Model the fold of this input.
Amino acid sequence: MLTPRENSIEAHGLVRDFKKGPRAVDGIDLHVDPGEIFGFLGPNGAGKSTTVHMLTTLLPPTAGTATVAGYDVVEEGPQVRKAIGAALQEAALDPYLTGREHLRLQATMHGITGEERKRRSNELLTRVGLTEAADRKIRGYSGGMKRRLDLALALVHRPRILFLDEPTTGLDIQSRTALWQEVGRLAKEDGVTVFLTTQYLEEADVLADRVGIIDHGHIVAQGTPEQLKAEISRSTVEAVPADLEQKGAVAAVLERFGTPTTGFGPESVAVQLAASDGDLAQIVRALDAEKVRISNLQIHEPTLDDVFLAKTGRHLEGAGEEEEQEEEEAAAL
Amino acid sequence: MTQTAALQAATLGRRAVVRTARQPANIVFPLIFPMLLFAVNSGGLKAETRLPGFPTDSIVAFAIAVPFIQGALLATVNANVEFARDIQTGFLNRLALTPVRGIVLLLGQLGGLLTIALVQAVFYLAVGLAFGVHLETGVGGALLLLVLEAVIALAFASFGCWAALRTGSTEAVQGLFPVFFVFLFLSSMNIPRNLIETDWFRWVATINPVSYLIEAVRALVIYDWHWEPILIGFAVAIGMSIVGFVLATHALIQRMARS
Done:
């Protein structure tokens, strides 16, 4: 019988430096409970993948310690690898092999042979809905099919802990939803601990029991999505003027109630309310008093993006791209 | 090596063979190109056989040694370009995340490449025989020729693996092709060393290990069990294999950098 420690992930002061780059991960502490789905949320370049690479033993940490499934990632790499499954950011598949051949190869590398290998391959192909495509070469697979096969490969040896590095990036809504369902099922029915990195707020919100938000190699917030949002406790009001020429007037009224925020449509004006108990009726009365007509008025509960904004001063969406652009501009000077 | 490790190496080797077999360009080019060069050399250098001291009357028997070396080179470059692609795409990381040992990964890769080189060698031998090459050492010589080809392929392959692992770049491995060919052209591929009249060329051909590989293959075809060049060829190929394998193993350890 497994002890709780044998299905958990712990990291203390984990650091990773690269020779010719900035410190990618800068002293992170985290704890993931057995059977939990932990969402590791952050923009591009925040340090998510580097953290996964360290926790999966692909990259030795520069400093700090981490245990996965109760084993030290530096001292007990082979034991860690036996306990984990991983689907890394790029679904690294051989375009000239079929799905079934991939599963056969992966199973053999895990020491699964003979009838068990065949049975397990068929079982996983069914589970990820690739039975019909099993004998087709990968170069004919869609992005979603590749991701599903990648997940199946990570599950071949029945891992206790699963690392998924941005598993739904580039997938359509249908494929994304199917993958979410499978990941949720793995955690709930099979008791697999899932460490999932993502840059999608919705994914972390829907799927994760707890979320860690990482930015510039630091964890800036950690907790359940509800706890994190409750910390912010300020809703956002979005208004769309009926006449776009009145956008300035609408903004002037809304700014009395909070601070301007972005991330909505180009015709919208939005503010994050200053008080937790912002009253929509008061805002309507103020808009009416200024004689501005509104075609749409909505109040939004705090989101994880609000949490990210509160902790880093930036919106999550586009944060990675902004930094890349700044770096390119600096390099061009 | 345990039974599981042997099965893992065999599975990886099979993958290397299957992947090559599913890319027609990687099959056709290594089969056709050396045979074209063989045809050109045999036709163009026929007069060489009249030189005093030339070891055989048959230019095809003399020239058939070269395709074996070219074939090993082409198989090496193609297979190691694919290996470098595995590094670039993250496929090697996928394998590194399994409990499989690094040495098994290397053996699987080399085993697959060896199989491809041997299939090519059988083809060159068959074409050579069809065009009138007579093996003085008979069936035993043909079998030993295949063993020698395997060791030669292993020698080139291990250096190719080293380059792939060291750089992780398909372009760098492709860049080995002209380097290997410079060694081939600066060897005794077209004329026996003792008949090279230009001093610097004879000196370069003498210090060039590829000369000894060609001469070993050639000895199995044109002489009746002349052991000295055969043993030297084996020694050079084995020596190169050992050096290449040590370098490749070291590069693999650094590349995987896993704990």
Remarks:
- Chain A has a mean pLDDT of 85.
- The two ends of chain A are 60 Å apart (CA to CA).
- The interface with chain B takes residues 56-60, 73-78, 81-82, 84, 86, 88-90, 92-94, 96-97, 101, 104-106, 108-111, 113, 137, 153, 157 of chain A (CB under 8 Å).
- The domain at 4-223 of chain A is CATH 3.40.50.300 (Rossmann fold).
